[in-house]
Write a structure and sequence with these properties.
CATH class of the largest domain in chain A: Alpha Beta
Number of strands of chain A: 13
Strand content of chain A: 5-15%
Strand order of the largest sheet of chain A: 2-1-3-12-6-13
CATH architecture of chain B: Orthogonal Bundle
Oligomer: heterodimer
CATH class of chain B: Mainly Alpha
Number of helices of chain A: 18
Number of domains of chain A: 3
Order of helices and strands of chain B: HHHHHHHHHHHHHHHHHHHHEEHHHHHH
Shape of chain A: globular
CATH architecture of the largest domain in chain A: 3-Layer(aba) Sandwich
Helix content of chain A: 40-55%
Strand order of the largest sheet of chain B: 1-2
Number of domains of chain B: 1
Number of helices of chain B: 26
Shape of chain B: globular
Structural class of chain A: alpha/beta
Structural class of chain B: mainly alpha
Radius of gyration of chain B: 25 Å
Strand content of chain B: under 5%
CATH topology of the largest domain in chain A: D-Maltodextrin-Binding Protein, domain 2
Largest sheet of chain A: 6 strands, mixed
Number of strands of chain B: 2
Largest interface: A-B, 82 and 69 residues
Radius of gyration of chain A: 24 Å
Helix content of chain B: over 70%
CATH topology of chain B: MetI-like fold
C-alpha cells in the first residue's frame, strides 16, 4: 500500500513539474551566471508569468547540442558572443527567421552590421578586444604597460603573456582574425608568432585568460573587453587597454528553428533590444557595450563608448565573410603552428631575443645576417593568403560539408602533419642559428 | 543441478530455451542488456565515425594510418602513458606508508586518516586544479614566498609535472582504500606462521604481507592508471594539450569541424585502456588469494616505540599536508575576498556562503539523489557481476566483466554525446518528456561510469572469500539464495561499502558526462553549479564555497559508512571470538 502511495505521489509530482514549465522560454548560452541572472530577473519582472530557463554550454558545445537535438528540439534561443557560431548555425538551417520590433538600434557599429541580413540573429551588445594586465604583477616584475599588440612582442615581456586559442574561443578567433585582416596575412601571423613566443600558456577556454591575469599567474592577457572590465569591477587589481587596431563585434541572440515557444523567444529578444534591457548591460558584473547609443547617457565615468569619435580610431572594418571562409583553416593553423608547439616556438623566440640583446649595438654583420635568417624562419608560413581563401584548401577542414564539385587536396590529418613538420623544423633551425649568432 | 539440465538436453524434445535458465543466468542476461543499451551502443554510435572516410562516408582504416603517421599524436600517446605511469608511482609513494602505518600499528590517528583518505576524491575536478595552481603555481603561495626569501621557484605545476602532481594527489585514495582493505583482510595466522619460521620485519612484509595484499594494490593501481590516462579535466585546466584525452576532446567539440581524428583518438583511448585492464587480469589469473580462516582482525597490530611514533606522525603529516592542499586552497578561495599575486587572500568574508545558501538547496538535493541512486545501482550490479564471474560457469561471463570495466575507458564527453544521439528520439511515458533531457539519464550515466569502481571493490572482496565457506553452507542444506544472503554478502560487506563510497564520492563531483546531459538548471547537481559559477570573475568565491559544500556533504556520508564498516567488523570479530 505504502509503495503504491509513494509511487503515485512521485508520478503526480513529476507530472505537475512537467506542467509547470508551460510558459517557459529556454535559452542555451555560453554566458556566465553573472550575466544571465540580472537579465533573467529583469525579463521575468517585465513579463510576469514567464520563466526564463537557462541552459549553460560553451559556444562549441551549444552548437553541437543543437545539432544533436535538431529533430526533437527543446531549446528556444541561442545566446552567445561569437557571430561565427551563428553563421554555422544559420548554414545548418538551425535558426528561424523572425520579425523583431526594436527602437533606436543602429544598423551597424564600427562598420560591422549588427543584425544578420536575413533576420536570423540579432546583435544586442558589442565588444572590443584589448590587453588586460595585473597591476601587482607588473609592479613586482618592473614591466611597462603594453598599449599596442606590437608592445607584447618586446623581449621584456617574455613569459608574461597569455591568450586562448581561436579554436577554443570564438572571441579569441575574432581577435586573431582582426589582426590578420588589419595587418595583412604574413605580417599578422608574424605578429602572433612573436607574441606567442612571449607567452607562458595558451589556455583551453577563453575565461582561462582573465582567470590567469586575475590570480596573478600571468601578467598580460589578450581578452575580450568585458572580461577585463568585469574583473576590474569585481575588485581585482587589473586594468584593460584597447590597442588602436581593434574591432568592435556584436554579441548575438537568435531564435532556433522549431522552437517550442517561439512567441516567448521573440519577446525575450525584443526585451534585450529595448532601452530597459540595454541598461542591464551596464551592470558592473556584466560590463558589455550597449548597441543603443542612448544607453551611454547613464553609463558610469570612464565607460568606453564605441559610438564616440575618439574610440579606437584605427579600428578596422571586420570582413565577416572572409573570416567565415577560412574559419576552420585559421583555427587549425594557429593550433598546429602555435598551440601544440608552444615550447618549440618559445625556445626559438627566446634564442633570437638573446642574440638581439647581445648584438643590440650592431657592428657584427655575420650575426645580423644569422639573426635575420632566424627571424624569417620563425615568421615563415606554410600557405599564402590566396591559398587560405582557396576552397580546395579550406574545405579540407570541412570536408563533410564540401561541395561535390570542389577538388579537395588531401586530408586534414595529412595537411596538419605537413604543417607540423614545417613548424618544428623551422623553429629548431631558427633556434640553432640564433644560438650561433649569440656566440659570435 | 547440472545433472537435471544434462538430462533435459538428452530428451530430444524441441524447446525454445533448451536449458532452464538459472537465476544467475537471468541476472546475467539482464545486466548484459543494461550494459549494451547504456554503454556499448551509445559509445559505438560515436566511435564508428573513426572508421568512416570523412568525405565519402565509406568504411576505411585510413584515419588510423593518419593517426600513427602524425608525430603530434605519437607524442601525445607517449605523454599520456608517461603521465599515467608516473601518477601510479607517486600515488603509491603517498598511499603505501599511510596504508601500512594504519593497518599494521596501533596508531591513534587511524580512523581520521582512513576517513581523510577519501577526501581528495571528492574534489570537483577543475576546482582542485585551480586551488592547486593558487598554492603551487608559478606565482602561487609557495613560489611567491620562495622567490621573495630565497630567490628561486620550483616548477611544481609546469607542464606534465603539474598534471602528474594533481592527478596523484587526486587519485591516490584508490590505492589507499583498496590496499588498506586487503591488508586488513589478511589473516593473522599467516603472519604468525611466518614468524614461527623465523621471518620478520621487511622480509615478512615483502614475502608474505605484500603478495597477499596484491589484489588490492593491483586493483587500485590499474584504476589509477586508466583514470589518469583517460582524464580530460586536469590536463585541460592546466592547459596541457599534448596528451591523448585533451586532443580527442578538442577535436570532437570544435565548431563546424567534423574531424575524424577526435573519434580515432577516442577509439584508441578506449582500446588501450581495455588492453591495460586485460593485461592486469592476465597477471591476476590463476592466483588464489583467499584465506580460509576468517578469524578476523587482519594483521596483528604492533605498538609503536616513541621514536617510531614521531617518525610516523612526521611522514603522515607531510603526506596529509600535500594531499589536503587543494582543499586548503579551496577554503581560502571560499572565504577570501580578492586573491591576486599574493601568498594569501587580501581579506576574508562570509559573503560567498551567503550567496550560495540562497541558491544551492536544489543542487544539494539533486546531487544526493543522483549520486546515491547511482552508487546503489553500482553496488548491486557490481556484486552480481562479481558473483557471476567468480563463482559460476556461465558462458560469456568474462564478457560481462569486460563490458562493465570498459566503462572506465570511455571519456565522459563521448558517453554524453552517445546518450544524446541514442535517446533524444525516445519519448518517455507520464509526460516526462524526451529521454535525453530527463534527469534520470544523468543517474544512468553516473552509474555506468562509476560501475567499474564498485565492480573492482566487489571482486576483490569476493576473491578473498574462500569457496569452501560456501560449499560448507551448501552441504549443510542452505539454498543458493540463502548462502548468498547469509554468508557471502556479509563477508563482502567491507568491499561492498568501499565500492559504494567510491561510487558515491566520485559521482557527486562528476562533470564531463553531466555537462552534456543537464537540460535545465533545476536538474543540475553541485558540480554543474560550480562550473556555472567559475565562468566569471565574481563567481570564483561562490564557486569555491559551493565546492566546500560538496566536499563536506560527501565527507559526512563517507564518515558514516566508515563507522558502519568498523561496527560490522567489530561485531563479526566478537561473534567469531565468542564461538571459540
Amino acid at each position: 500500500m505504502k509503495k503504491i502511495l509513494t509511487l503515485s505521489a512521485t508520478a503526480a509530482l513529476l507530472m505537475s513539474s512537467a506542467m509547470a514549465f508551460a510558459d517557459t522560454v529556454t535559452v542555451v548560452t555560453s554566458f556566465p551566471r553573472d550575466m544571465t541572472d540580472p537579465f533573467k530577473s529583469a525579463f521575468e519582472a517585465a513579463h510576469p508569468g514567464t520563466t526564463l530557463e537557462v541552459v549553460s554550454r560553451n559556444t562549441n558545445a551549444a552548437v553541437a547540442h543543437l545539432k544533436e537535438t535538431r529533430s526533437a528540439n527543446t531549446v528556444d534561443l541561442m545566446w552567445a558572443s561569437a557571430p561565427d557560431a551563428f553563421e554555422v548555425l544559420k548554414d545548418e538551417g538551425l535558426l528561424a527567421k523572425v520579425d523583431v520590433q526594436s527602437e533606436g538600434i543602429p544598423d551597424a557599429i564600427g562598420g560591422y552590421p549588427l543584425n544578420d541580413a536575413d533576420g536570423t540573429y540579432f546583435g544586442f551588445a558589442a565588444s572590443g578586444y584589448g590587453i588586460m594586465y595585473n597591476t601587482r604583477y607588473i609592479a613586482a616584475n618592473d614591466l611597462p604597460i603594453a598599449n599596442e599588440w606590437e608592445d607584447l612582442m618586446r623581449p621584456e615581456y617574455n613569459g608574461h603573456v597569455a591568450m586562448s586559442s581561436p579554436s577554443r574561443s570564438g572571441t579569441t578567433h575574432l581577435t586573431v582574425e582582426t589582426v590578420l585582416q588589419g595587418e595583412g596575412w604574413d605580417e599578422g601571423w608574424a605578429t602572433w608568432k612573436w607574441i606567442a613566443g612571449n607567452m607562458n600558456t595558451v589556455t583551453e577556454r577563453s575565461f582561462g585568460v582573465p582567470d590567469a591575469v586575475n590570480s596573478g599567474a600571468t601578467g598580460f592577457g589578450i581578452v575580450i573587453d568585458f572580461f577585463g572590465l568585469a574583473s576590474k569591477a569585481s575588485g581585482f587589481p587589473v586594468d584593460l587597454v584597447y590597442p588602436s587596431v581593434t574591432a568592435i563585434v556584436p554579441a548575438n541572440i537568435g531564435v532556433i528553428e522549431n522552437a517550442p515557444n517561439q512567441e516567448g523567444a521573440v519577446k525575450f529578444v525584443e526585451f534585450l533590444l529595448s532601452p530597459e534591457g540595454q541598461q542591464v548591460l551596464l551592470n558592473p558584473a556584466i560590463m558589455r557595450l550597449p548597441v543603443n547609443p542612448k544607453a551611454y547617457e547613464n553609463a558610469p565615468d570612464g565607460f568606453p563608448n564605441p559610438f564616440a569619435d575618439d574610440f579606437a580610431p584605427d579600428a578596422i572594418e571586420f570582413d565577416v565573410d572572409m573570416s567565415g571562409e577560412r574559419y576552420n583553416l585559421v583555427n587549425s593553423l594557429f593550433d598546429v603552428l602555435v598551440t601544440y608547439r608552444l615550447n618549440d616556438l618559445r625556445e626559438a623566440v627566446a634564442a633570437v631575443q638573446k642574440a638581439e640583446a647581445k648584438h643590440a649595438n650592431g657592428g657584427n654583420d655575420e650575426a645580423a645576417a644569422l639573426i635575420a635568417e632566424a627571424r624569417s624562419l620563425i615568421e615563415a608560413m606554410p600557405i599564402t593568403e590566396a591559398e587560405s581563401l582557396d576552397p580546395s584548401f579550406t574545405q579540407v577542414f570541412t570536408t563533410s560539408r564540401a561541395k561535390p564539385e570542389t577538388e579537395v587536396m588531401g586530408r586534414q590529418a595529412e595537411v596538419e602533419q605537413a604543417w607540423d613538420s614545417f613548424a618544428v623544423g623551422n623553429y629548431r633551425k631558427a633556434r640553432e642559428l640564433a644560438q650561433r649568432a649569440a656566440s659570435l | 543441478m547440472t545433472d537435471s539440465t544434462a538430462s533435459t538436453l538428452s530428451r530430444g524434445r524441441f524447446r525454445l530455451f533448451p536449458q532452464q535458465l538459472s537465476g544467475t543466468a537471468v541476472a546475467g542476461i539482464l545486466i548484459a542488456i543494461f550494459l549494451m543499451a547504456f554503454l556499448i551502443l551509445p559509445v559505438a554510435q560515436v566511435i564508428y565515425v573513426a572508421f568512416l572516410d570523412a568525405r565519402t562516408g565509406v568504411f576505411t582504416l585510413q584515419n588510423f594510418q593518419d593517426f600513427f603517421n602524425t608525430s603530434l599524436f605519437r607524442e601525445s600517446f607517449a605523454n599520456s602513458f608517461y603521465v599515467s605511469a608516473m601518477s601510479v608511482v607517486v600515488a603509491t609513494i603517498i598511499a603505501l606508508p599511510l596504508a601500512y602505518i594504519t593497518t599494521r600499528f596501533n596508531f591513534a590517528g587511524t580512523a581520521a586518516i582512513q576517513a581523510l583518505g577519501i577526501i581528495p576524491l571528492i574534489m570537483p575536478p577543475f576546482v582542485g586544479a585551480v586551488a592547486m595552481s593558487l598554492l603551487f603555481g608559478r606565482n602561487g603561495t609557495i613560489n611567491l614566498l620562495l622567490n621573495q626569501y630565497f630567490g628561486f621557484r620550483i616548477p611544481f605545476m609546469e607542464g606534465l609535472s603539474g598534471v602528474i602532481l594533481v592527478q596523484s594527489v587526486h587519485y591516490f585514495p584508490f590505492i589507499l582504500i583498496n590496499l588498506s582493505a586487503s591488508l586488513r583482510n589478511i589473516d593473522r595466522s599467516m603472519e604468525e606462521a611466518a614468524q614461527n619460521l623465523g621471518s620478520y620485519g621487511m622480509r615478512l612484509f615483502r614475502r608474505i604481507v605484500f603478495p597477499l595484499a596484491m589484489p588490492g594494490y593491483l586493483a587500485g593501481a590499474a584504476l589509477v592508471f586508466i583514470k589518469v590516462f583517460d582524464d580530460l579535466g586536469t590536463p585541460l585546466l592546466l592547459n596541457v594539450n599534448t596528451m591523448l584525452a585533451p586532443q580527442a576532446y578538442l577535436r570532437i567539440t570544435g565548431v563546424g569541424i567534423n574531424d575524424p581524428m577526435g573519434y580515432v583518438i577516442s577509439f584508441i583511448l578506449v582500446a588501450f585502456s581495455v588492453f591495460s585492464l586485460w593485461a592486469s587480469f592476465l597477471f591476476m589469473r590463476g592466483k588464489d588469494y583467499a584465506t580460509v580462516q576468517k578469524g578476523g582482525g587482519g594483521l596483528s597490530r604492533r605498538d609503536l616505540k616513541t621514536s617510531e611514533k614521531w617518525l610516523a606522525w612526521g611522514v603522515i603529516g607531510v603526506i596529509l599536508a600535500l594531499v589536503l592542499s587543494p582543499h586548503l586552497g579551496l577554503v581560502l578561495l571560499a572565504f577570501g575576498t580578492i586573491w591576486s599575486f599574493s601568498p594569501l587572500p587580501d581579506g576574508y568574508t562570509l559573503q560567498h556562503f551567503t550567496t550560495i545558501f540562497t541558491q544551492s538547496s536544489q543542487y544539494v538535493w539533486n546531487t544526493l539523489m543522483y549520486a546515491g541512486t547511482a552508487a546503489v545501482i553500482d553496488v548491486i550490479l557490481g556484486s552480481a557481476i562479481a558473483y557471476i564471474v567468480i563463482r559460476t560457469k556461465l558462458p560469456g561471463r568474462k564478457w560481462l566483466d569486460y563490458m562493465a570495466t570498459a566503462a572506465l575507458a570511455v571519456p565522459g564527453v563521448v558517453l554524453g554525446i552517445g546518450y544524446l544521439r541514442m535517446f533524444h528520439t525516445v519519448e518517455l511515458p507520464f509526460g516526462l518528456g524526451k529521454m535525453s533531457s530527463f534527469w534520470g539519464i544523468i543517474i544512468v550515466a553516473l552509474a555506468v561510469r562509476r560501475l567499474p569502481y564498485a565492480l573492482r571493490a566487489c571482486m576483490a572482496a569476493l576473491q578473498q572469500v574462500s569457496l569452501s565457506l560456501e560449499e560448507a553452507a551448501e552441504s549443510l542444506g542452505a539454498s543458493r539464495t540463502s548462502t548468498l544472503r547469509r554468508i557471502v554478502v556479509p563477508l563482502m560487506t567491507g568491499g561492498i561499502l568501499a565500492g559504494f563510497v567510491t561510487s558515491f564520492a566520485t559521482a557527486a563531483v562528476e562533470l564531463s558526462a553531466t555537462i552534456m546531459l543537464v537540460a535545465r538548471s533545476s536538474d543540475a547537481p553541485l558540480a554543474y553549479g560550480i562550473y556555472l559559477y567559475m565562468q566569471s570573475p565574481a563567481g570564483r568565491g561562490p564557486g569555491a564555497a559551493l565546492g566546500i559544500l560538496a566536499v563536506v556533504i560527501v565527507a559526512v556520508g563517507t564518515y558514516l559508512s566508515q563507522r558502519i564498516i568498523e561496527r560490522e567488523r567489530a561485531r563479526q570479530t566478537m561473534t567469531g571470538n565468542g564461538q571459540h
